[in-house]
C-alpha cells in the first residue's frame, strides 16, 4: 500500500433569479484549529466539486473497508475482497470497475462523528457544524457564495446543482437564504427527454410552449401601454432569460441524447449512471458544485438483496465518471467526494423483522475523495478487525469539509452574511483530527 505523505507546495434557482424566478414574479484556509499542528497550508487548485451523496448511509464493510476475517455475521456473503490496481488496497468484490480506478482516489476509513440520526448526521456531514440555533449552509451553498455569481461565475445554469431531488434532511442554504439554494433538476436523466424543472416542461411540447408565450404577449395590454416603464423592462428581461434557458444553450446542456449510445451505456442506463454523466457535463461547463443525490442506502432490512442491485450501479457509474473526467483533463480541477451521513452497523441483524439488515452507524464509516488536489492510491486511517471502531487517524466531517474548502481556495476564516449580523465564519475552530494533508 502506498503510504500517505505530507507535502509542502502542493502544487435555477439562483441563475433563474435572472430568468425563471423573475418571469414568475485566492485565499488560504486559516489554521486556527483546523489544521493539524505543523501541517502545511495548502493553496486551492480545484474549480468544481461533484459530490456523490449516498442518501441513507452506505455500509463501509460492503464497499471500501471489507473485513473478510470478521466472519459471516459481519461480512455476510461478501468475504472475498478484490485487489485494486494499487498494491495493498482491497475493496468489496462487488466493485470490480472501481478497483481498476483506485490510483485515482483515496479512501478515508476512519470517518467518525458518533451520530446515528439521519437528520443530525446529515447536517453535521454537510455543514461541518454542530446543530444549534443558527442553521449553517451546506458545502454547496458555501461554494455558491464564494464561487458563484458574485465572484465572476457566468455559467448557463446556477452554480449549485442537485441531481435530481433535494436531499431534504437539512436546509441546504441555511442562513444564506433562498439565493443560495441548489437548483434541483427533478426528472430522470435516463429518460429522453430529461425533463429538467423550469427548463423542459413535462408533457408540454415546444410548439405549445411558444404558443403560450405568444398568447401572453397578446394579452399584455398594460405592458404595451407602459412600454417605457423600467419595472416592465425588468420583467421583459427576466422573461427573455427564462426562454433562453428553455430553448437555448442551457437546454442543450441537459440534453443527454447528444451523447453517443456507447458513452451512455458505459455509465449505466439508470438514474445514477446518467446523473454521473450529467455531472461530468456540468463541470465541463464550469459549474462549481454538483450533488448527485443517490438514494436507496438506508438498508435496515434485506440489506444484501439491495446491495446486489445498488453496488453494480455504483461501481459502473462512479468508475466511468472517474475515468471520463481523467481522460478529459478535468480530474486535476474537479473534486469527487463520495459518502453519506454515516455508515451502517458492522454486525448484521439477521433476525426478523430485519432479515439481514444493517442499522445506522456513526462511530466509524468511509468516505472517498478524488481529484482537485487530492492524491489517489492512498488509504487514510483504519478501523478495527470488525469495523466497529476507528483505531487510527480519526477524521471528522469538519476535517473533510475544511480540506475541500482549502483545495477550492475558500478561506475558512471568511465571514458569511447572515440575517442577525453575527460574526459567523465558514468553519469554526475545531477539535477534529486536522486537514487531510496526507493526501493533499
Structure description:
- The protein has 440 residues and is of the alpha/beta class.
- It has a single domain (15-200, 254-439), classed as Alkaline Phosphatase, subunit A.
- It is 30% helix and 12% strand.
- The chain contains 13 helices and 14 strands.
- It has helices at residues 20-23, 72-75, 96-99, 118-127, 139-147, 206-219, 221-225, 230-247, 249-253, 261-267, 271-284, 303-327, 397-408; strands at residues 48-54, 82-83, 90-91, 105-111, 160-163, 183-184, 289-294, 334-339, 343-344, 360-361, 365-370, 378-380, 382-383, 390-392.
- The strands form four sheets. An eight-stranded mixed beta sheet has the order 6-5-7-1-8-11-4-12, with helices on both faces. The chain has a two-stranded antiparallel ribbon with strand order 2-3. Strands 9-10 form a two-stranded antiparallel ribbon.
- Strand 13 and strand 14 (390-392) form a beta hairpin.
- Helix 11 (271-284) runs parallel beside helix 12.
- The longest helix is centred in the C-terminal third of the chain and has 25 residues, at 303-327.
- The model is unreliable at 1-41 (pLDDT under 50).
